[in-house]
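Quick question, first post here. What does this chain look like in 3D?
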Amino acid sequence: PARPLAERIRVSAAIEIPEGAAEDAQRLNASLVALLNCKDPSWGPARFDVVYQPETGVSRAVLYGTPAFLSAALAAVGVFVSEDRT
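> Answer (accepted):
Ran it through. Tokens below.
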């Protein structure tokens, strides 16, 4: 029998961090790595990559995984943004 659709679908999201926000990028990336290290096993496989484009100065945090993982990760990003210390 086929696995449930929720277990087969994978989604992705990219979070762009503009030039001049290196400290914010480091803090956000550390938070996302911590989320991956303690993620709920029911979220299934997940991945996090950081891509830096020197020509634009933009850093991108790219997340891949199940909808459950991405939902939790984007909620964490929302908390991170709401706690802006600038």
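The CA atoms of residues 19 and 59 lie 8 Å apart.
The beta strands are 11-17, 46-53, 58-65.
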